[in-house]
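Lab notebook, bench 4. The sequencing result for the construct came back, and we need a structural model before the next group meeting so we can plan mutations. Quick request posted to the team channel:

Model the 3D structure of this chain.
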Amino acid sequence: MPISARARVGAAAIALAATGIAAFGPAIGQDRPESILPPGFGEPAAQPSPTPRATQAAPAGVPLPGPTGVATIQPLPGLSPTPTPSATPSATPTIDPRTLAQYEMPAYARRSLDMVGPAGPREGALGADTFDKTDGRFAEGLMRRIAAPLPSRWMSILLRRTLAAQLSTPARVDGADFAAERAWLLLRMGESTAARAVVQSVDTGNYTPKLYQVAMSAALATGDPAGLCPIADGGARLAPARGWTLAQAICAGLRGEAAQAKSLLTAARRRNVATGIDLQLTQKVVGAAPGGGQAVTIEWAGVDRLDDWRFGLAAATGVTIPDTLFGSVGPQVRSWYALAPGIGLADRIAPAEAAAAQGVLSNAALVDLYGAVDAADDMPGTASAAASDLRTAYVGASADARLGALRQLWGGQTPSYARLVLTARAAARQPVRLGVADADRIVASLLTAGLDRGAARWRAAVPEGGDGWAMITLADPDTDARVGYGVLSRYAGSGDAALKQRLFFAGLAGLGRLSSEDVERAAQALDVRIGAETSWTRAIDRAAADGDRGGVVLLAAIGMQTPHWRGVPPAMLYRIVGALRAVGLDGEARMIAAEALARV
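Done. Here's the predicted structure in token form:
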């Protein structure tokens, strides 16, 4: 995608309570359906006219031969045909649902649960065999335990590429349930659109109660209550919750059945299914449909928390959510807000920067957003100024002018990581030259977008022992050369130099760029206990040895159960980087190691 346990959602609350946002419970139709059949389909074929010829009148009651030349059977002489009364009409026979399903979804169009997911390697996702060596139940258990969002942008990107991939369903789990676990973790990460894509990779006929629950949250997180309509009846039957009752009313309104929608809302109000803001938002969605009636004014007074129902319906109808309510949910909801299409441009800017720092939005997506700000009118002054600076950073008349614009965007002593993401490709336009005071920031900015070779070009322009030099040493894809203990000991990065040196050591050791003697010497000198064993270290080491890529990615995310990089132990970083490298994810390992120095 990432709802309070106080919401009474039955079984759904157990799965949803982990993130602090509670599920409330869990297209507009045409005026006249249009035929999808070709013209003339189903109409009787035109018969050729018989050749005119002279004939004598036929006896009464004896029909002439038809145009095909086949004579009709004549009645016996003296008897006139009498119609036989039919039996009492019977009720319309019941059609077997399995037979009906064959016409609604032909066998060739059905998707197997053996392979589920929206993206393949061409779209940047991992391969279908990612979880082939993983026990499915173990993988599902790991997904539930990951406290998202993660502190690392690059770890989050890798996890999204894993969960959104078109994956072979691992052993011992149902494909629909496994998709539900993947989508629920994506929602907790803030990846609402990816979560919905995973949910929609399963045919609705194969939905399980777990997938119905997650599908509701995915539709609401994307601000798309109409996405509930294909599954509202099934959800109400298999995963009962208050939200499905209201969704049926919303869908009736969106189909243009205003009377039915109002009737369902009246029944819901009478049964106390929803009250207050939840009922008001539902009425607003119904009122926006054809024939929905009078508009509804939303009053947030007295509302002290946000949940996915309130978020989804407010985002769908353009209702501004008070900033104070975002304090009642996790930071992933701001990423939902940044991705929801119904949110205005001005309201999207700050959430979009936060989403970029988390890895939900790319550099290109954030640049596009500021490009829209630059072209729009009546934007906030700070946003317009930033958009103007970004334009100068790309197309300024001189390198100095472009560098000055970058400095304006980065701001004070420690620029926000989101601004480093925003300026990555603008920084790539800077010529490499000595004496640039912001060289370390340029390197860090380039690496947020994975421009590792562009960053390596600055090796001779950054001072040895500084942050830029250390990040290049970790991220350079074209060298496997080992560095000595003396080089490591000369690193003295800005800020918390002691912690940065331990993280630098962990990254070098995990990437195999220190000899075994130097690894042991540095571990003792820096007090990084890379040899300590826990159940987690044994699990990730075993997965790496088995070539279990899916297991390594999930266990690496488990090792980052902290909201900030400062909480990631260097010993864990060493194991994570080494395990990723062991299963062929070298690029991701290098980016994560370098990111640690940029964000501490």
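The chain is about 50% helix and 0% strand.
Will bring this to the meeting.
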